[in-house]
Amino acid sequence: MPQNFGYEVPAQRGIDTVIEVLRSPIRFLDTSNNYSGGESERRIGTAIAGLGGLPGDFVLATKVDRDSRGDFSSVRIRRSIEESLLRLGVEQVPLLYLHDPEHISFEAAMAPGGPVAEMQRIRDDGLALHLGVAGGPVGLLSRLVDTGVFEALITHNRYTLVDRSAERLIEAAAAAGVAVVNAAVYGGGILARGAAGSDRYAYRPAPAAIRHAVAVMEKTCARYGVPLAVAALRFSLRDPRITSTIIGISRPERVAECLRYVSSEVPDELWPELDRHVPKPEYWLN
User: Fold this and answer.
1) What is the CATH number of the domain that holds 171?
2) Residue 197 and residue 212: Cα distance in Å, rounded?
3) How far is CA 10 from CA 87, 90, 111, 209, 273, in A?
4) How many distinct structural domains can be found in the chain?
5) What is the domain extent for residue 187?
6) Which of 10, 32, 148, 233 could form a disulfide with 63 if both were Cys (CB 3.0 to 4.6 A apart)?
7) Are the CB atoms for 85 and 93 separated by under 8 Å?
């Protein structure tokens, strides 16, 4: 998705990356119907086929999406999962998310015969085992979680070293027994590359306060001998309320690097120091 990340990933490199993930200790992969117009799912499906099928202990999650015209109807939702299963080469996914519900209203999402009702029928038909919701605005996601329909939640860019917008959402979801999946802990790249490597957060120009916080946190991490990227990932992994953490991996060799980050030591004293530099809530995404 070059419009988000500024570079393209060749098809074979993407396939090789997925194969490396499937062979690794990582047991979870997240995708969506509309990622790169379906190309993400096609590459994943090619990798699965090349290995002779999906490992039995692997959780493959995808999302139902509106189409290019913005259609989010029940008919589109059904077509979305059918497209995904065909591309992935599987008959069922363990986990299916409603993707970016902020493009419609809460009322439209939950209407009789609407997209959420269709997702429930998809589950009843055996095409998905569990349902989740994945999106941005925390207020809308909180309302959707409160319906009791969803068993999992993806929040993205809103629980990172520099943005804590999703704090209450995560707390409420965890208390309700909803699995919390925290995505984009690198904020689209700046918390992996550092302040000199990116001036964007959440795929848009970052406010000066965010860029300053990243620069200060990077220096703070350096004093402890911890790469900023390690701290950004471990910030999410260390939180007991978070079930799983999603990061983007675009090269096969990054898989081993990610696993090294997971096992890297981070001194307990670093976290309160980083917390002191979190920007004020007015700079968060909400």
Assistant:
1) 3.20.20.100
2) 13
3) 18, 24, 41, 35, 40
4) 1
5) 8-193+229-267
6) 32
7) yes
**Pairwise CA distance, residues 159 & 284, whole Å:** 10
The answer to whether the pTM exceeds 0.90 is yes
CA torsion sign for 10, 157, 212, 278 is negative
8 pLDDT band (50/70/90 cuts)?
confident
Is residue 208 situated within a structural domain?
A: no
- 69 within domain boundaries: yes
- The answer to the question of residue 283 being in a domain is no
What average pLDDT does the structure give for the chain?
Answer: 96
Does residue 278 sit within a domain?
A: no
Q: Residue 58 burial by CB count (10 A; 0-12/13-18/19+): exposed, middle or buried?
A: middle
List the beta strands (DSSP E) in 23-147.
28-30, 59-64, 93-99, 128-135
